[in-house]
Amino acid sequence: MSPIIEDLCQVEQPILTVLTPSLNHGQFLRQTLETVVSQSYRNFEHIVIDGGSTDETINILKEYPHLKWISERDGSMVEAYRKGFVMARGRYIIQCCVSDGFLDRQWFQKCIDILERDNDSSLVWGLPQYMSEDGSLLNVSYQEFFSDPPPQKQAFLEFWLATAFCFPEGNYCVRSDIVKRLFPGDKSESYFQIHSHLGFMYQFMVNGYCPYFLPIVANYGRIHHDQRGQKLRDIERPAYVMYRKRIKRYMNDLFRRRTQHVFRNGRSEIFDQLIPEKLWRLRRQIWRHKILRSPVVRLDPYTLAQKLRRRLTSAIR
Q1: What are the backbone dihedrals phi and psi of residue 275, each rounded to the nearest 5 degrees, phi first?
Q2: Which of 23, 17, 21, 36 is nearest to 219 (CA)?
Q3: Which residues of 254-273 are buried (b: 16+ CB within 10 A; e: fewer)?
Q4: Total number of domains in the chain
Q5: In angstroms, what CA-CA distances link 289 with 240, 250, 254, 307?
Q6: Is there a domain that residue 274 lies in?
Q7: Is 261 within a domain?
Q8: Distance of CA 194 to the CA centre of its chain
Q9: CA neighbor of 264 nearest in space, from 125, 165, 154
Q10: d(CA 311, CA 111)
Q11: Which domain holds residue 41?
C-alpha cells in the first residue's frame, strides 16, 4: 500500500480518545504514555487532565508533542473527567490512569472493531492484571472468565444483577456520547461522585446498554503506596456498598413491576425490552449465577480459608 493510500485509510478510521487523570505520579507517567503510543491503532488522541502536579509530570508531558493536556487544580475526579469530555473529539473513549497502562498492543484496534461492526454493543471490556510498584506483573483478575466467561450483551444484565460486577475501569472502551451523558456530574448522588466509575456503570446498565467481553488481558493496574484506591479506601468502600444497594433496589423494582427494563443499541434506540413473561427466566438466571459463581463453589478449601482469615484479621484491626 502506498503512503498516500495508507494516509487516506487512516483518516477514515474513527478517532479514539484516551483520557488520563494525573496528579503527582510523574514516576510512572512515561511508561503509561509509552503503552498508549505503542498501540497498533494510530488514530487516537491522548488527553491528560492533570490536577496541578508539582513533581516532574509537566516536564514529561512536554516531551510528547501529540498530547493534549491541561494542568490545574480539580475539585474532584468527576470534575477532571468532565474537563476531559469537553476536550474529547473521539467517537469512542477509553481511560487510563497515570500509573496504569496497556499490555495488549492490539487492544484499541480490537475494541474499535467490535464497536464498529456490532451496533448492539456499546462498551467493550477485557481483563486487567496487577503490577507491582517496581513494574513486576502479578495476578490476572477474574482468571475464571477464560474458561467460564460472563454472558454477552443483553444476557449480561442477569449476571450484573446477581454479582454487582464492575467493569475494569482501566480498559473498557465505550461510545463517547453514552459515557458523556451517563457519567456522574455535580448533581449526581454523592457516593457516585466519590466513585464515579461505579456511577457510570450503574447508569449504563439500568439504561439498557449492552457490554461485550473479550477474554484478553488488556491492561495493567499498578499497585503502589500512593494510589488513589488505597488513600480513599474508607471513602470508596461505602460508595460500593451503596452501589450494591441500588442494584438490589432496581432488581426488586423489576420483579415487582414498578419499572420496565429496555435494551438500547449504540444509537440509544430501544430494540428490545423485558416483558413480564420474561421475568421468571431472569429470576432463574440470577439465582443460577449467584450459586454457580459463589466463592464457596469456585474456590478450593485452602484458598477460601485464606480469604476468610484475611477478612477476619482486617476486621479486628
Answers
A1: -75, 160
A2: 36
A3: beeeeeebebbbbeeeeeee
A4: 1
A5: 20, 17, 18, 21
A6: no
A7: no
A8: 15
A9: 154
A10: 36
A11: 13-253
In single-letter form, the type of residue at position 238 comes to P
Site of grid cell 491541561: 70
Is there a domain that residue 213 lies in?
yes
At 60, is the secondary structure helix, strand, or coil?
helix
* Three-class HEC string of 162-231: HHCCCCCCCCCEEEHHHHHHHCCCCCCCHHHHHCHHHHHHHHHHHCCCCEEEEEEEEEEEECCCCCHHHH
CATH number at residue 168: 3.90.550.10
**Are the beta carbons of 222 and 28 closer than 8 angstroms?**
yes
DSSP string, 72-99: ---S-HHHHHHHHHHH---SEEEE--TT
How would you write the pLDDT of the chain (317 residues) with one tens digit per residue?
444 334 434 447 999 999 999 888 889 999 999 999 999 999 999 999 999 999 999 999 999 999 999 999 887 888 999 999 999 999 999 999 889 999 999 999 999 999 999 999 999 999 999 999 988 999 999 999 999 999 999 999 999 999 999 999 999 999 999 999 999 988 888 888 888 899 999 999 999 999 999 999 999 999 877 655 554 566 778 888 999 999 999 999 999 999 999 999 999 999 999 998 899 999 999 999 998 877 655 555 666 577 677 777 766 65
The answer as to whether 317 is a domain residue is no
What does DSSP assign to residue 39?
-
* Residue among 191, 167, 188 nearest 243 (CA): 191
Distance CA 305, CA 21 (A): 38
